[in-house]
Amino acid sequence: MFESLIGLVAIIALFVIISRQQSRIGLIERELGALRSLVLSGAAPPVAKPAERIAADAKADAAPMAAAAADIASPVVSEPVTQAPATETEAPAGEALPGPWSAGEAPKAAEPVEPIAAAKAPGKPDIETALGTRWAVWVGGIALALGGLFLIRYTIEAGIFGPGVRLTMAAVLGLVLVAGGEFIRRTGFKVPVQGVAGAYIPAILTAAGAFILFGTVYAAHGIYGFIGPALAFTLLGAIGVATIVAALVHGQALAGIGLVGSMATPALVSSQAPNPWALFVYLAIVLAATAAIARMRDWKFLIAAAFFGTGAWTIAYMTNAPGADLAVILFIDAVTLAVLALVWLGSRGGEEETAKKGFDWPSIVPGVFVAFSALGLSVDSTLVAAGDALPGALVIVALVATALYRPRAVPLLHAAGLVSVMIYLGIIPPTTIGSDLSQGNVGFDGLRVAAGNPLTLRIGIGLGLVFVGAGFWAARRFAAVAQIRAACWAAWGIAAPLVILLALWLTYGNLDRDFVYAAAAALLVVVFAGGGEWIARAEEPPLKGGMAVSFALGGAAIAGLLMLHMAFNSGWTTILLGAAAIVPAQATRWRSYPVLGWISVGAAIAVLGRVAFDPTIVGAEFLSKTPVFNWLLPGYGVPALAFGFAAWQLVRTTNGRPRLAMEAAAALFALLAVAMLVRHAMHGGVIDTGAMTLAEQAIYTLIAIGAGAILVAVDMRSPSSVLRYGSMAAGVVSVAFIVIRHFVVLNPLLTDESTGQIPVFNLLFLAYLLPAIAAGGLALYARDKRPKWYAQMLAVVAAVLALAYATLSVRRLFKGEFIGLWSGLGQLETYTYSALWLVIGVALLTAGVWLKSQVLRIASAALIAIAVLKVFLFDMSELEGVLRALSFIGLGAVLIGIGLFYQRLLTRAARENG
């Protein structure tokens, strides 16, 4: 295999030589073609400066392949002459060139060279560049590493040398490769041409040597036992750190190799009595050294990997080590945050400049791992017993402090906030963050939350104060220069205290009524509202009401909601919460913050959620059976009035979407108030049991029609899209009620429900005649105020309801209180229906002509057509004697009368037009 590899390298080298010669010939041909084009066009070729010619000649002599990689081409005469990107120049003698394995490392040329035409586009090197400068170097580095392994393997199989000699030879080979890489770098190695920076020969040699040295030390300890754990640990760590340091001159990839070796060293070296302090002091040194190197070169992936390795070792120690040492965990957390704040995120410009740079994404890694360790310190029973849960809180505070000290480390704030929320949600009974996964709950190594810890209350208060103070101070600090960062701080400044307060109340407070926690919530309302105003004064322009202010005021609203639940019972909470919608609407008179209107909308949503959960407002057992004057009236009426007033106030100030939402909420609660009072009265003071009757449904239908008329009237005085579409929605809903409930589901013909003993004012009057009058009146009122189809729909429904009332009244006249279909039909009753329908048809025709309503005239024609069909198809077979004759005589007389009526109408119209 080794011989085949050597042959492959020789073939590649031969191919490179041939390709280079062909490239040079092609270069000469293109230069001659470019000169010929310039001569023919009469343009003089650009003359390079003497210094540029000297630099270009030196470049061509020192690295001929670079000239081939920057081919000069100008095949089209009309194309403008462009400037090619400059290639790297030779560094001064004795200056160390950094490796090109990361952005921005390669030194720039002293002065750009201006060739005749544009060079090839970067990122598309020719085959000569690829083979000669990258593949050959990579294959060569792999060959060196494999050669060392094959040599050692050969000596083992042949038994030429003992283990000690073989390890010595391997170590010498590794050192020789490292020294060779350094020698080549120091003796004038030049950075490769553009596009081949990955083939940095000194770094490849050093990496191969580092691998061999790592393997040698590990074999001396793990395979042959020549050295003990302490010495092996020290040597491997020293090799890893030295490799990371060497990356300063060889590039980020070499630093990654050293970091992997350093982080793997503790796993490779085992001990009968492991010392956690030795492990984490070693990790701290590696982390600090890596951060210093990464900071110099701005290697983000390297520092993120270093934080990941340190955090992984910390979590592994906490979850697997029996009796984990609390001091060790706090030590490595402190070192991690110190390295992040003082080394990696060292002074990087002024406060305003730093704030505009966004966040530092490598900070996510230490934030996650340190926050996870804080969670373990707070919920692990052993660690909690060792420190009374206080160390976990201190780690959270350290996360917040670090994020406050270094603004770009804002991921630490999110980590601290999330872990605080998780900890305090976990103390709420019966929540068990640490319970076993088999029970369906997320846990920390199967350990239960220490909810009964006596310091939990005081720690929660302390953490809440930390988040409030730091959150609002930082939000004001960044309000003018970094709105998103300010919003993040303000969000956690209100979210964490609210969750902690809620968890402590649910765990330790009185859920029925607790004035102590209510006072704490009221204090948060004042602090959040005042903090929002304080932040708004620092905005640019002031009092703009950005995201940070919106979070603060929204938090004040949520705290107010908690206060009402903690201090009052269900009924008063609903009423006061509805009335509270007025407060932010009134505040718009002095401040134009966009969030104020939406807070009113949030109050309406909260009230709607409460009544959906408990429609009785105070509970079914506490609801009085007195009609109208019970908890339903203020429970639905006060919010309706408050929402209406808030909408009126918002019209005068902001007049945006919140105003429309409040108008809709006011209309909805007004309807709900009437509907719930009706149901309460119809069911003897119980609103959540019993099937709906036709009488109750008729009242709901009348309410819907009346609401549509009221909304139309209000809209005419104060135009609003909510009122416009709400009025039409009320009409459509009422029509749906009529078609589905009145005509089908609750129709007394189908249910045989009692229609009442009173002749006129009975169920039919309430369920059919009154809705017919209401729908007709609304159709007439909305005729010129709403779309044509809307008024026509209501007119048709009104006509059908009137027909239904008349028909069912005839049925009741013949059958009495119960008019079910299964009681049969008499001949006189059948004839009466025909006569009645003809009379109603004529009445509809007259009304249609008088009101100039085509819909009513068409309805009249349809009803008369039905009467004609009934006479010819039904009456002819069912009626006998004089009734059959009268049926046809009456039908004929009516039809002739209608014909004469229409002829007179047409004659009159012709005279008027003539």
Helix and strand layout, with pairings?
Blueprint: H1 2-41, H2 50-62, H3 64-69, H4 127-158, H5 163-186, H6 201-223, H7 229-250, H8 252-268, H9 276-297, H10 300-320, H11 326-344, H12 351-355, H13 364-379, H14 381-387, H15 390-405, H16 410-425, H17 456-478, H18 483-508, H19 515-536, H20 547-567, H21 570-579, H22 582-587, H23 594-613, H24 632-652, H25 657-682, H26 694-717, H27 721-745, H28 748-751, H29 763-781, H30 788-815, H31 827-851, H32 854-878, H33 882-913
Q: Pick out the low-confidence regions.
A: 1-18, 47-125, 128-135, 191-199, 432-452
Secondary-structure-based class equals mainly alpha
Find the count of extended strands (DSSP E, 2+ residues). 0
- Please summarize the sheet with the most strands: none
Strand content: under 5%
Distance between the termini: 114 Å
Q: Give the count of helical stretches.
A: 33
Shape field: elongated
The helix fraction, in percent, is over 70%
Indicate the radius of gyration in whole angstroms: 44 Å
What is the arithmetic mean of pLDDT? 74
Outline the structure in words.
It is elongated and about 135 Å long. α17 (456-478) runs parallel beside α19 (515-536). The chain contains 33 helices and no strands. Among the domains are: 721-824, no CATH class; 827-913. With 914 residues, it is an all-alpha fold. The longest helix has 40 residues, at 2-41. Helices cover 72% and strands 0% of the residues.
